[in-house]
Structure formats: structure tokens, C-alpha cells
From TrEMBL:
InterPro entries: CitG (IPR002736), TriPribosyl-deP-CoA_syn (IPR017555). It comes from Massilia norwichensis. The gene is mdcB. It comes from the Bacteria. This is Probable 2-(5''-triphosphoribosyl)-3'-dephosphocoenzyme-A synthase. It holds the Pfam family CitG.
Length: 298
């Protein structure tokens, strides 16, 4: 019996590695899907750079691929480290290494800092959740990510000076950190329900994803918008997103016309909903995890 233990351990290790690799691939795919999704108001898409002067969809995809090793390490840590405090420290260190890899891949351009935080937590929580044999439930994974986000990371700097952090302090909002600690409510309460609703009523996949983005934009105190345009830009963008959805989303003629008006207004304000884009990528990741698990079970 004892002689079989190493074989069992090896098999278990192989299963963990397979899960981690799969989750890392899904995270990269979610980021690439978000980058290439078109049309996205104010954001980089296949038509152009939106409100940005230093970003292209190709650069976003290069950045996403450069982050795969970090997502793999986070998923491996989620599978292997049982102590939540130690796990939080480990993924914090991996996240900082991932930022350096991102900057090296992009020539110093911040493409995915917020996404590293959001998707990194979700990949870790998913590996931890699924390694225990639990179902790949998006809401449960998001809750697990929230529990990790609430733990302190002693290696994290007290202040980063990032625009999002400054916007949080100036406008009194939670930002990416607040979303994560709350279990990603914009993802589980807005993006995923809209994604499912749009698919169910017959919208095309790209249209469903854009509608999911708009659902996040409609309610999120997006620090990217606040940093670039303040409260006025945030309120205008939220109202515009709500209007598109109220008219049936972008699959309807009236909704598409409202999206065009929203894009025109955002170009005038020179603003971009980068926080909402990160949360859309998070929603696409959770959606991919659920659907991938459903395929394996069927």
C-alpha cells in the first residue's frame, strides 16, 4: 500500500498542473477576447485606440500572452497552498512580478494592471475551489476571490501613486480593491446576468459581451473615468450606458444608435472605462470556467 503513495501523489500533482494550465489559458483567452471585442466605447478595439494614445489591440494581446506564466503560478499556488494568509502573500508577490513582465512586454505601457489584480485573484480562487472538488460556480469563485482580497499583503506598497488609487482617495470610491473585496459584485450582479440574458434573447456573442460591458459601465464608479474626466464624465457615461440597455442593447437599432451617441460623447470628454473593461474580462473568465466545466461533465 505504501508503495502506491508516490504514484498517487504524482497523479494528484498532474491533476493540479492540468487544472492550473487550463485556468491560465482561460485567463489569457478572456483578456484577448476583451481586447478584440468591438465596438467598445472609449476603449481599445479592432477599430482603433479609443481615448488612448499609447494602446493598440495588438499591444493588449501581447501583454495578455506575457501574463500567462503569472496566471499559471497563481493557479498552482491556489491548488497547493492551503493556508490563506500564506497564499495571499504568494500571489501578491507573483502579481508584482507580473506587472514587471507586462511593462517589459509593452515597453512601459500599463495595459493590464487592474486585470492582473482581478483575474489573478479569480484564477487563484478557482484553482483553490476546484481542487477541493467543488463545482465551477462563478459566484462561489468570486466570493472566494473576495475573501483572499480582504487579507493583507505585507509585501504590497502602502501607496503606489497609480491614477486609480489617486482617484479612489479624491472621490471616495472603492476602486478595483473595493470591487475585489466585495466579491466582484459588478461581475456577478451586472456583467454575468446581462451576458446570459443577451444570449438567451438571441443576441450575437459579441453583442452579448458588449451589453455585459455596458451593464458594468452603467453602475460602476470607474476610477479610470474619474481620473480622466471627474464626476461629470462618470455620470454622463453611466447615463449613456443605461440608455443603450434600456433601448434593447446594441442588437437593436435604437440601442445601436444610442451607443453611437455615447461613443461621440466619450470622445469629446476623452475618457475611457478601463475599470469596466477589466471587470468584463473577469466576467468572461468566470463564464469560460463555468462553460468549460459543463463541457467536461457532459
Amino acid at each position: 500500500m505504501t508503495a502506491l503513495n508516490p504514484l498517487r501523489q504524482s497523479a494528484a500533482s498532474g491533476l493540479c498542473d492540468g487544472l492550473a494550465k487550463r485556468l491560465a489559458d482561460l485567463a489569457v483567452e478572456a483578456l484577448i477576447d476583451e481586447a478584440m471585442l468591438t465596438p467598445k466605447p472609449g476603449l481599445v478595439d479592432m477599430r482603433g485606440s479609443g481615448a488612448h494614445t499609447d494602446l493598440t489591440w495588438m499591444l493588449m494581446c501581447r501583454s495578455a500572452c506575457a501574463l500567462r506564466p503569472a496566471f499559471l503560478q497563481m493557479a498552482q499556488a491556489g491548488s497547493a497552498i492551503g493556508d490563506a494568509t500564506l497564499l495571499r502573500r504568494r500571489i501578491g508577490a507573483i502579481g508584482r512580478e507580473a506587472e514587471a513582465a507586462m511593462m517589459a512586454a509593452t515597453g512601459g505601457v500599463n495595459t493590464h494592471r487592474g486585470a492582473i489584480w482581478a483575474l489573478g485573484l479569480l484564477v487563484t480562487a478557482a484553482a483553490r475551489h476546484m481542487q477541493r472538488g467543488d463545482s465551477a460556480d462563478a459566484e462561489a469563485i468570486a466570493l472566494g476571490a473576495g475573501l483572499l482580497a480582504r487579507l493583507e499583503d505585507p509585501g504590497a506598497p502602502a501607496r503606489t501613486g497609480n491614477k486609480g488609487e489617486l482617484a479612489c482617495r479624491e472621490h471616495g470610491v472603492g476602486g478595483a480593491r473595493g470591487q475585489a473585496r466585495a466579491g466582484f459584485p459588478a461581475v456577478v450582479e451586472q456583467a454575468l446576468p446581462m451576458l446570459r440574458l443577451a444570449r438567451a434573447r438571441g443576441d450575437g456573442e459579441a453583442q452579448a459581451r458588449v451589453n455585459a460591458l455596458l451593464a458594468v459601465m452603467a453602475g460602476l464608479d470607474d476610477t479610470c473615468l474619474l481620473a480622466r474626466g471627474g464626476r461629470k464624465a462618470l455620470a454622463s457615461t453611466q447615463a449613456g450606458a443605461r440608455r443603450v440597455l434600456a433601448l434593447g442593447g446594441i442588437a437593436s437599432p435604437n440601442g445601436r444608435a444610442a451607443l453611437t451617441r455615447l461613443e461621440t460623447r466619450m470622445r469629446q470628454l476623452h475618457v475611457s472605462p478601463g475599470g469596466a473593461a477589466d471587470l468584463l474580462a473577469a466576467a468572461l473568465l468566470l463564464d469560460r470556467i463555468e462553460r468549460s466545466a459543463d463541457k467536461e461533465q457532459s
